[in-house]
Amino acid sequence: MNPPTTAVILAAGAGRRLGELGRPTSKAMVPLLGRPLVQWVWQRLTVAGAQRVVVVAHADDRQLQDFVRQLAPEIRIVLQNERRGIADAVLQALPEVNEEAYLACACDSLFDVADIGRLIEAGHARPSIAAVAVQEMGVAATATRSAVEVRDSIVVRLLEKPAAGTTASPLVALPLYWLPAAVTPHLREAALVGGERHVSTALNQFITAGGRVKAITVAHRTEVTTAADVAVAEAELRSVEG
């Protein structure tokens, strides 16, 4: 039997790209079909097999903190005082993670339950490895995202917003990770780039130190970072909810 799975929801983002939708609320609290985005993420993680959930909220986001406490009292809430990127947010959650490895998911992405389950399964099968969800989006898409170079399903390196011509990989890293404890020192050591610490930097350091990162290809991810994305996400959820 596998040990319990803890999922960390990274929900401290401000949601500035949401325009008017993001003014009265944080990204995590933007409503989709009447329910906050964070609730949809939490629901999919728990259905996929997460028994414990930790939510990383910004210290000023009282609305999110109050909602999460009402949603499920067993959810642990930790605070990120300054928005310094996903790697920093993960570090804030670690005091609440009791397992040797855990799942981390950004709140601005809705993944299929089956794909989340595949990362959990891969992680439990090889507890010492890390895993990252990847999607084939084309080389042009990597200019504003993290490109992933893969050989035999194992990540060779990740490139954060690579310059044109520096990689031929069409794979993009998505914000869904399985992270063993061995990655923690690299999260702490990741240099600030543009005021943020990136998980891609930490995973590259982990690989250089001899660690292995498995690439898990997903066919679909619903990203919610702009007002236009909200309309698309609601249409997709209506079709799923029936």
Descriptive account of the structure:
With 242 residues, this protein is an alpha/beta fold. It has one domain (6-241): Spore Coat Polysaccharide Biosynthesis Protein SpsA, Chain A (Alpha-Beta Complex). The chain is built from 7 helices and 13 strands. The strands form 4 sheets. It has a 7-stranded mixed beta sheet with strand order 5-4-1-6-11-8-12, with helices on both faces. It has a two-stranded antiparallel sheet with strand order 2-3. A two-stranded antiparallel ribbon has the order 7-13. A hairpin with a 2-residue loop joins strand 9 (146-151) and strand 10 (154-160). Helix 1 packs across helix 4 (113-125). It is globular and about 45 Å long. It starts with 5 loop residues before the first strand and ends with a helix.
How far apart are the first and last residues' alpha carbons, in Å? 34 Å
N-to-C series of helices and strands: EEEHEHEHEEHEEEEHHEEH
Radius of gyration: 17 Å
Low-confidence stretches: none
Strand arrangement, major sheet? 5-4-1-6-11-8-12
> Helix count?
7
Which bin fits the share of residues in helices? 25-40%
Average per-residue pLDDT, rounded, comes to 91
Strand content: 25-35%
